[in-house]
Amino acid sequence: MSRVELDGVTYAFGDVRAVDGVDLAVPQGSLTAVLGPSGCGKTTLLRLVAGFLAPQAGSIRFDERTVAGPGSSIPPQQRRVGYVPQEGALFPHLDVAANIGFGLPKGERRSDRVSEMLDLVELPRAYAERAPHELSGGQQQRVALARALAPSPTVVLLDEPFSSLDASLRVSTGRAVARALHATGTTAVLVTHDQDEALSLADQVAVMRGGRLVQADRPRDLYRTPADAEVAQFVGGAAILPATVAGGVATCALGQAPVQGTADDGDAQVVIRPEQVTITPGRTGARVGDVSFYGHDAAVRLELLPDGPTLIARVPGLAAPEPGTEVGVGVSGPVFVLPA
Predict the structure, then answer these.
(1) What's phi and psi for 221, nearest 5 deg?
(2) What is the pLDDT at residue 277?
(3) Can you list the domains of the chain with their CATH numbers?
(4) Which end of the chain is more exposed for a tag (fewer CB within 10 A), N or C?
(5) At residue 233, what are phi and psi to the nearest 5 degrees?
């Protein structure tokens, strides 16, 4: 499997730069999630790596081999790339075994490889004789991954492969796919607009905005130390409050909190995650707005009094306050500081 490197990659549709000078390194054997809202350029980036588009500037390398660069581009079929589209795109007239073995040479070991791939994506071998329409959406996506992995590609590219699945099936299928990729040591790039999916499945998350790569980090580091306020709010949600920093302590509308890492004294902004907001019944400081109950927890919208900003608190589901009540609010744990 190969390390994938993008250096200054640019691609424009007319006057619109869909991908604008992107530098990204995907370590060998890792899963990188390219995360961003619709229209940010993430699918265009995937198509550039696949070879469906050629960059207008910059270069793409698989290990030391340049597959796209100034004046030259290796065609997709010569890059040994596995591609998993949104809907799986299985051949409806072929059974599962024929779909998985489509890119393999004919021979005795073809059936062995099909069985191996079914085991890898956690599907019974008996499914080899089923038609695609006899499978659930999640099973079809696993077969699509098995087909992409069967020829032992250099890199596997996944274009929002779970977006059409319901919530529970999306989680279980995503985990099965990630396990299969890690089991084979496959270098993979996953395009998604789902923050939870990116943070839970990937070894590295690359956030795109307006065609540019804003930040690429391990999921924990991205969540703890976002590059700017927009990344903080897009990845996991956050309240960005004005604050004053003095001696490693930040003072904001929710009170005082230690600063995560180091920060200069003076005016700043603090990033407060929903799980850091504490609620104290029977006190005042905020009015409870909407409460979204999820069972295991609840998202509580709070309006700071008398006319402060609105923020979200995550609390245990059975401890959620009633809408319209007043509660005390505070902040728990260290906070990340951004420039004012």
Answers:
(1) -70, -40
(2) 97
(3) 4-233 (3.40.50.300), 239-339 (no CATH)
(4) C
(5) -75, -30
